[in-house]
Structures are given as C-alpha cells and as structure tokens.
Specification:
The chain is mainly α and about 80 residues long. The protein is about 80% helix and about 0% strand. The protein has helices at about 1-5, 10-25, 30-40, 45-60, 65-80. The longest helix is centred in the last third of the chain and has 18 residues, at about 65-80. The relative contact order is 0.12.
C-alpha cells in the first residue's frame, strides 16, 4: 500500500503507512529513514530531524548512517537559519 501511495505521489498517505508499519516493526531502520524523508518532503522539518536522530541513536553503524548524518547536519543548519 505504501508503495502505491509513493508511486502516486501521495506523500501524506505514504507517511501514514510508515507510521503504521513502525508500530508493527519499531526496529526497522528502513521505515524510520523513509519516514524522515517523507517528513522532509512535506516540510515537517522538526519531525524529520527527530526521525533522523532516532535512526542514528538506534542504528549508528547502519549502511545509511553516514548519509543520514550528512542530511541531519544540513537540516540543523537550515533550522538554525529559520530561527
């Protein structure tokens, strides 16, 4: 269902699917990372930041950790400039 929403560019609905999946699979690094990206796409920057931080807290050695750290640093700079 999430993939259908993503292919139809229904970001809000895809995000809702991620939320439900994470209830069932709270230790899924892929879902947590994807939820962060969907929050970014929806310009929910603080939610994206929280998800990226959770990802790094739980999966610091994951294959995608370096990219998440880079994105988090960019997001921190953007949020600082917004204040």
């Amino acid at each position: 269902l999430k993939q259908i929403h993503l292919s139809n560019r229904e970001t809000e609905k895809a995000l809702a699917c991620c939320d439900r999946i994470l209830v069932l699979l709270p230790d899924s690094p892929e879902e947590l990372r994807e939820r962060a990206w969907l929050n970014l796409e929806l310009e929910r920057f603080r939610s994206a930041k929280r998800d990226f931080e959770l990802f790094l807290d739980h999966f610091p050695d994951h294959t995608f950790a370096r990219g998440v750290r880079d994105r988090l640093a960019e997001l921190d700079q953007m949020l600082a400039s917004m204040n």
